[in-house]
Amino acid sequence: MELALAVALITAKVVIVTAILLILPIPLTWLERKIAGHIQQRLGPMRVGWHGVLQPVADGLKLLTKEDNIPVEADRRLFKLAPIISLVPPFVVFVAIPFGDSFSLLGAEITLYISDMNVGLLFIFAVAGLEVYGVIFGGWASNSKYALLGSLRCCAQLISYEIPMGFSVIGVVMLAQSMSLLDIVNAQADVWYVVYQPLGFFVFFVAGLAEAQRIPFDLAEAEGELGAGFHTEYSGMRFSFFMISEYVVMVTISVLCVILFFGGWNGFLIPLPPLIWFILKVGFFIYLFMWFRFTFPRYRYDQLMAIGWKVLLPLSLANILLTGLFIV
Amino acid sequence: MSEPDFRARIEERFAGRVREAYSSHGMLTLVVDKEIIGELCRFLKEDGDNRFDYLSDLCGVDYHPDTPRFEVVYHLYSIPHRHRLRLKCRLGEDESIPSVTAVWGTAGWHEREAYDMYGIVFDGHPDLRRIYMWEGFEGYPLRKDFPVRGYKDDYNPFGEEEAERPASQARASAAGQHSKPPRFHQSIATARVEPEGGARATKEMFLNLGPQHPSTHGVLQLVLDLEGEIIERVDPIIGYLHRGTEKLAEGFTYTQVFPLTDRLDYLCQPSNNQAYALAVEKLLGIEAPERAQYIRVMMTELSRISGHLLISGALPMDLGALTALLYTMREREMILDLLEMITGARMHTSYCRVGGVREDLPEGFVERAEEFCRIFPRRIVDYERLVAENRMFLKRTRGIGVISAENAIDLGLGGPNLRGSGVDWDMRRDNPYEIYDRLDFDVIVRDGGDCYDRWECRMEEMKVSVKIIEQCLRQMPDGPVKVDMPEIAFPLDKQLVKSSMEALIHHFKVAAHGFKVPKGEAYSSIEAPKGELGFYIISDGSEKPFRVKVRAPSFINLQALHLIAKNGYIADIIAFLGSLDPVMAEVDK
Asked: How far from the centroid of its chain's Cα atoms is residue A246's Cα?
């Protein structure tokens, strides 16, 4: 009985998290277009619903009804597989991400996370790293030059930014003495780690921008050069899979920023429910991503690589050294 | 060097080979044997007293059925001495002429154009292929015996019957060794072939950028040979938007040509109108009234701002900063409103007329224009904050696509592209036309020659243009806006048509037949936003021009692409294009 209840609870949580993540792109695209509009002195979507709130629904419907086009010379199996491969890892990552501590419901303790792994951070990086397969399969299977160039760029970028990203969180792990995200957040009850780890945060955030392939690091789909990059040949729902995955990655990076450096759901001065604090902080980071996108141009491929290897990597290593000295 | 001295010197050097030397509409013209053209051009370019270092224009003319049939006309300019010279060479149907590509690099595309349009063969041209028409097109469209409608085929059901094709328009394959010039990108065929023996070999990849591509600003196709992300070679393929402006103009009256000029550089129509009007006025020997000149200059400067605004927003946009374009569009809207106020059209204004402008400024225009001049300089600060001080933008444009001053002159670049390379030449100051000599303005020059400098030149030129507009608004006198010549322009007072028989007849004649222009030829050019925009018009004394050659600055500027794109990154070619600012409608004519 207890086992059945536990399984039911976990299943329910998984379903809820997945549902939220699937629906999340709807408000996010609306927000992004609205923010873009107002930054650019226009109104953004206004026609569908109040201030265009239903615009993403209309877009979704459009994508659903679009012809699902597969190029003649594409590798059909890989072509179909790629969007799924790129969609799954960002969702799986959320297994290890806590949204809060726990609360009691009808006498039962319900935790606000699916699983508290003692290697949570490792798990996240390991799973997130799989996403690159979706990109490279997509680019390769399309049998198109633009897609191929885009996916090659993307691969190189993801791999070279994962390294400084991984190093940048080591400082946090050293301070918290744990890889469990729950412990990391709890360790920040008094002081957020961004105070101790400004350098680590900087590296993590910049690498995160690259990981989420947002401007100024959106080379893989630099529309100025490569059309749409690795998903040039995709249409309809397959295309939207890539888009959803991109948004979920953006949310993941924002969530990780908050958990690792900004105290997770720990409040500050104003007493608000922990979950609200958490959402507010994540929202701020998402806004930051969008703000950047409509302010900066993008780097060139070689410049991007130079930043990754020559700036971020040494910085993250220095950060580990400094943190070590600090702890000792 | 004075003109007689110069003539004497040429005569002495090329005794007997210069058949004629005369001055026509203020330009010295030499008619020479085709054999000496290469030597003469080199002499003119390198001789210290002349230094004709800039080939403005090169074009063919067809005098069918006269013989010898063709003529090649060169318009030279000397940037150090600020004077012009015209060379002419007659040649028969089967004759070829030495290429001058070795003297001026810019001749490359000019000669390709003449080959494409007239079938004139230039010996020693490194890459003589069709440029506007596609490979395999038959006939030479600008020849007098080529019908405007073309010949009937699968794509052109309304063309003339093939059977009526004259021998001179024979299929290209009959022309001999030049019928099939080597294709540039032969790698297309070989790239797909598996390396022999199963061995893996590296091959450069070829990539078609365009004609449908977000960053090529129109229908430009670039065939790139890539080595990884590095560009080995680039071959721009143009002509997707070729409308045959020059051919059409030959069938129109002088006034009817104005709408055609609108459609060249569609961002800066008033300047095209102005350049064409000036050329016809030169042929007629008339000048527009003062007020009309002020209005034209003002319109041109407005359109200069509008053109520069678009491209200075589009360059950051191509590099990923979308917002800049939306900002510049906001101000461009104000200019379009002003143009609409004057002409009733936002895009194709057709406002100039031979001998003036169509109508006087509307009421309230001066206030609106002053308001614009007040607001706009403050807005430029916005762009500078958003773009010019942005490290990423600097990193993408500083030191990228460098063109040296010599290369820029050799390639015949113009406008901000030339001044961005440190060449201090602006025809508004150096060869003033209309009322520019009464205005006080700076010429913006930058020394770097990279994408950023070209971009910055445009930003600064917009500020200069605002000052020019302010001065025009202050200085503009009252008076008529077109010449009082009823046989050329509509009467100043339209009511006259209702009361005077004479006026009615003239009105009818001008509207129905146009006006006759005395026999002769004239080249007139202005400092258009993109560079030197010239019109070379030959009149045979009728109401329709015999030949109109457009010296389109975008066409020449685009030619520089292959030079600066080589060994750059793919991402850089977008910055090159954005900084060269080609408008495809003008490139393709």
From this structure: 7
